Amino acid sequence: MDRLDELEAQSIFIFREAFARMKNIALLWSLGKDSNVMIWLARKAFFGRVPFPVMHVDTGKKFAEMYEFRIRYAKEWALDLIVENCPPIDSVDPTLPPAARSAARKTEGLKSALVKHGFDGLITGIRRDEEPTRAKERVFSPRGAEGLWDVRDQPPEFWNHFNASPPPGAHLRIHPILHWTEIDIWAYTRRENIPIIPLYLSRNGKRYRSLGDADITFPVASNARSIDEIIDELHDTKVPERSGRAMDHESEDAFERLRTAGYL
Amino acid sequence: MNVLVNPELLPVADQRPLVRIVIVGHVDHGKSTLIGRLLYETGSLPDGKLEHLKAVSARRGMPFEWSFLLDALQTERDQGITIDTSQIRFRTASRDFVLIDAPGHVEFLRNMITGAAQADAAVLMIDATEGVREQTRRHGYLLHLLGVRQVAVVVNKMDRTGYSAARFNEIAEEIDAYLTGLGLKPAAIIPVSAREGDGVALKSASLAWYDGPPVVQALDQFSPAAPLQNLPLRLPVQAVYKFDDRRIIAGRIESGEIGVGDEITVMPGNKIARIRSIENWPVPHEGKTVTVANAGRSVGITLDRELFVQRGEIIARALAPVPATRRLRARVFWLHPTPLVPNTTITLRLGTSEARGQVSAIVNTLDPGALQSGISHAIPQNHIGEIDIELAKPLAADRSTENPATGRFALEIDGRIGGGGLILDLLDQRRDQNEIRGSDSTVPRALQQQADALAALLADLPPVDRLKLLRDQIEGRIVFTTSFGIEDQAILEMIVRNDIDIDVVTLDTGRLFPETYNLWAQTESHFGKRIRALYPRHDALEALVEKQGINGFYASREARLACCFVRKVEPLNRALAGATGWITGLRADQSANRADMALLTADASYRLLKLNPIFDWSREQVAAFTASQGVPVNPLHERNFASIGCAPCTRALRPGEPERAGRWWWEEATKKECGLHGR
Q: Is the CB of residue A231 less than 8 Å away from at least one CB of chain B?
């Protein structure tokens, strides 16, 4: 087994644990590279089908290429797709910096979707290497009734024994690719031939490393026009992956506040 | 400055070995500082990160600390301690690393355990000015329990001791003795100053007296924990999927490997089948079908017959099944605020199985920090202890020394993980690893009542009357299994001379002594009676010898039990099929294990009454009886062979040895059973 085989085996194991132990789960599909790898891994785990709903919490501000991708692959992959919209900006905590406030719409959209569908578990594509607060996550991570993450009171998790019983009113976030890196995602996408949104590839000396809302996500300087070139570029870069995501950088703790309040 | 990473030498990114390292130790001994320094020295910091944190420190009016790099959460910066395990990546010439920082504060032990349990190797930090402290010992002990096998010790803050070799040697000696005592010999003990950078990436002039590797070089020697490819197959079932016309059993291979056509058993139910296919998506192209899968893989298989298989069962090879047990002894670490006391109701999670149970006894407790052990009736939070657990249903499990993956478990209390442990022993393991009949270890009530009533009647009778009375009292076939030992010859004499209707059979393993075969023939002519023999299944025997070789049973206890199973236990199962009674020549004083056996028992797995009629005789009584009746006995007894089994596995006793010491003499003394009588 090489490194990608090991990552894949662990992710499949986590998917199967979530499906076996939770009653009502959904996979959050952001249409980005990580969540497309997740859908691929779910299809591997369940022999070609995703046996639970796939939910896109839509801010309405994604890139056109992302919506095209959603229409095409929801059909091609036979996904049970749920699209939930987010509330207007006025309903979001006005003390947050502007971009973070805009991103927090997604948190609100997520909260109402949880209530509407009664999910007890949400599968999300966060990775420990993306950002320091995500490094502290558990694979099965409990969220309080308000979706809050209590980083100080996380249950122990060892030897692949996960805490799968959320307290009443709470839900779990399940993180099947928590242990992957950005390079792993691309190397696996290449090996498995997983489709991607072309915005990730360089056009006019720029490409997107991470995709979010069109108005608060910016491309990075890059000449990587293929996945091979992306991998070479990442191997030498010291620029953080989320550097193009404005909401992380407005203040020292902006992203941490977003996450504690229930952001992914 | 980047002296360590030369991009020309780097192997392809996704093919480099990934080593997960946990950094543990007492609070404030400098773990986060070392990590910050390592990232800097290996050129792994994101652009601008160091400058950003220096600016943040200046804004807050605090001096810059290397640990800020890790302690990214605001709460941590406020308190100056690490709360949870962060994961940070860096690379050296040969490897990629994930550094897991684990909190030193005792109240965050659950987080330290979460971090360390994922690690391939560990770095244990010690402050040179403070030396070995409570958490140092506690973390060392937990590394050992969690199964981390590679450890380096870093003695930090050497600058504050004036780089004193004497101080370093004092600490090195103490920690080396402690860890080695746990079976965790440190790969290196390294003096450093993380703050100043001495001994981290390069040798330092201040530490010229130290001739070992710096930290980075020591880390570069660590390897990823390998999957357990060389242990017997263990495939815990995660789920059975019926999305289409296939019934796919899904799970991850924790140890060993599978191949299409392999004969497997699903434990604890002991349901036998063959693997028909290994399923994959995307479906492989024509001619590329997968026929084998190794340890570590998440797989899906189909079987050649419809078995009822469910989540929590473990698939093993039919020749090497997983033991099933309802009682076990374990060493546990306890993290829940409420102390663990006898009669606590727990849920035990092992592999994918889940069983309700109770703590039946607390054997001992240990505070690994204070190094105080004792007899206590409660294991407090963050302490270690040995406990006995009684489960509500049989569970497939291994001793942790035999298989780490299926020999460890988590304990859940009120729906939340409260501790974990390693299985030291399976206390009611029936027929050892070789049980073939039903997994239900509960004795039917009617059978138990019958046994209790009869045992009272038989207790004061001489052996021959015990045999007669049993024959009169129960319906159906009674089987006597003889191996022509002196006890068996005595019982045979009683049965034949009194014409008791008992079916006499022997199990010919094919590996008996020539003396035994001669005695067999001599016995038939002496009594004028043919003795029916049962033989191993030729296909199973051929497969066994193919797999382990003709004398493969010496290689391991596992291999030996596999041999006993094919040659002896499986034929016994056929001999006893449908019987209501079973006569054996066991005696109480033969070995420690057999002392637990009784004159008459209700045998749970065969669902029959088992009578040991000369249970309470001494060896001298048996010898006197056979001599007085002129019964032929095995000449090997005169040559100090006491209990005679297969030739390769039986030797003569040395003076003073207990009677069964001559059987499987290379194995542990108290558990010498082939699986016929072991419980």
A: yes
Judging contacts by C-beta atoms under 8 Å, the chain B residues touching residue A155 are 110, 416-417
For residues A1 and B398, the model is more confident at B398
Contact between B111 and A46 using a beta-carbon 8 Å cutoff = no
Q: What is the CATH number of domain A3-180+251-260?
A: 3.40.50.620
> Which of A112-125 are b and which e, b meaning 16 or more Cβ less than 10 Å from the residue's Cβ?
ebbeeeebbbbbbb
Q: How many pairs of residues across A and B have Cβ atoms under 8 Å apart?
A: 148
* B231 secondary structure, DSSP code: S
**Pairing, β B353-367 against β B416-426:** unpaired
- Judged by CB atoms closer than 8 Å, whether chains meet at B296 and A154 is answered as no
Q: Do residue B73 and residue A44 have CB atoms under 8 angstroms apart?
A: no
Core vs surface per residue B425-455: b (16+ CB within 10 A) or e: bbebbbbbbbbbbebebebeeebeebbeebb
Strand partners, B266: B271, B315
Residue B77 touches partner A, C-beta closer than 8 Å: no
Q: Cβ neighbours of residue B244 under 8 Å, at least 6 residues apart?
A: none
Q: Is B589 exposed, middle or buried (0-12, 13-18, 19+ CB in 10 A)?
A: middle
Q: Residue A157 is nearest to which of B72, B114, B250, comparing CB atoms?
A: B114
Q: Is residue B37 within a helix (H) or strand (E), and if so which, with residue range? A: helix B31-41
Under a CB-based contact definition with an 8 Å cutoff, are residues A217 and A200 in contact? no
Query: Chain B 279-318, CB below 8 Å of chain A: which residues?
Result: 279-282, 294, 296-298, 300, 311
One-letter amino acid of B340? L
Q: Does A195 touch chain B (CB under 8 A)?
A: no
How does pLDDT run across A93-130, given as a tens digit for each residue? 888 888 888 888 888 899 889 889 999 999 999 988 77
Contact A51 B243 (CB under 8 A): yes
Q: Mark yes or no for CB contact B13/A5 under 8 Å.
A: no
Which residues from A are below 8 Å from B112, CB to CB?
none
Domains and CATH numbers, chain B: 7-219 (3.40.50.300), 235-317 (2.40.30.10), 326-429 (2.40.30.10), 445-662 (3.40.50.620)
Cis peptide before B268 (omega within 30 of 0): yes
Helix (H) or strand (E) holding B356: strand B353-367
- pLDDT, tens digit (0-9, with 9 covering 90-100), for B208-256: 999 999 999 999 999 888 889 989 999 999 999 999 999 999 999 999 9
Chain A residues within an 8 Å CB radius of B352: 17, 20
CA distance linking residue B679 with residue B676, whole number of Å: 9
**CA dihedral of residues B632, B636, B641, B645 (deg, nearest 10):** -80
Q: Where in chain A is the domain with CATH 3.40.50.620?
A: 3-180+251-260
Q: Note the ipTM here.
A: 0.92
Tokens representing B137 are 């010992």
DSSP state of B569: I
